[in-house]
Amino acid sequence: MDDDDFTIVIPREFHPPRLADTPDSLFSQRVLPGMARPRFVRKTDKNQVIFWTDGACLNNGKANPSAGGGFVFSTPNVKHDGKYHGIHFRLENEGPNGNIEAQTSNRAELRAVIAALEFKDRSPEGWKSLVIATDSEYVVHGATDWITKWMDNNWKRSSGDAVKNRDLWELLMDNISRYEELGIEILFWKIPRELNKLADQKAKEGAALPAIDEWNPVYSALNEPIKLKTPMLFTVLQSLYTK
């Protein structure tokens, strides 16, 4: 993939079969052949798994904000090779381009999704679809809808203001496109906050950690950390998977 000109895929929103469906009603924790550790797998489709993500910011919008992210891939009672059910981390002061960025809840929520997608154990485990469950409207609608308008408008909002967190939006889309190349579709599910408590707990734990300056690629499953270059040329494709 060329660093300056590549094709990105706009993900779709996940719509459960019934309005009353929850992650627990659709997914159950299992270890299937080829999986390195327990995952929440779709009860009716062994090729689909779910991760929960969240971001948090202490003193959000006030003096000395402290943000963090977290994601969950199994229940708290599962331990495998010393690793528990989820990961939490402090939001870096620097973005992936090395620029100093604000500590905000929206930025932390985006960072959590990126960390989940770059999780080094994402692996070729046989699944073909990953559902990102989050209570963030900003993340879900931004990734599946708003971003096409932003890019068409040269990363400007309808008000004319620059889109915030452009560096993370670009990195998120890059990761989604890399999954697409592997034949894995990324879907976003907007869930109620009360159904995202474990990821919320992880995010708050991350926000309470000491400050970290440099962008941390420790979660990356790629051969090298991704460093974005600007300006970037984008070709936008809507996912062609059957709804």
Write the layout of secondary structure elements.
Elements: E1 5-10, E2 12-13, H1 23-26, E3 27-30, E4 39-42, E5 45-58, E6 66-72, E7 86-90, H2 105-117, E8 129-134, H3 137-152, H4 166-181, E9 185-190, H5 197-207, E10 233-238
Task: Give a written overview of the molecule.
With about 240 residues, the protein is of the alpha/beta class. The protein has a single domain (about 5-240), classed as Ribonuclease H-like superfamily/Ribonuclease H (Nucleotidyltransferase, domain 5, 2-Layer Sandwich), CATH 3.30.420. Helices cover about 25% and strands about 25% of the residues. The protein has helices at about 25, 105-115, 135-150, 165-180, 195-205, and strands at about 5-10, 10-15, 25-30, 40, 45-60, 65-70, 85-90, 130-135, 185-190, 235-240. The strands form two sheets. Strands 2, 3, 4, 5, 6, 7, 8 and 9 form an eight-stranded mixed sheet that branches. A two-stranded parallel ribbon has the order 1-10. The longest helix has 16 residues, at about 135-150. It is globular, with a radius of gyration of 17 Å. The chain starts with a strand and ends in a 5-residue tail after the last strand. The model is unreliable at about 80-85 and about 220-243 (pLDDT under 50). GO terms for molecular function: metal ion binding; nucleic acid binding; RNA-DNA hybrid ribonuclease activity. Its EC number is 3.1.26.4. Pfam families: RNase_H. InterPro entries: RNase_H, RNaseH-like_sf, RNaseH_domain, RNaseH_sf. Keywords: Endonuclease, Hydrolase, Metal-binding, Nuclease.
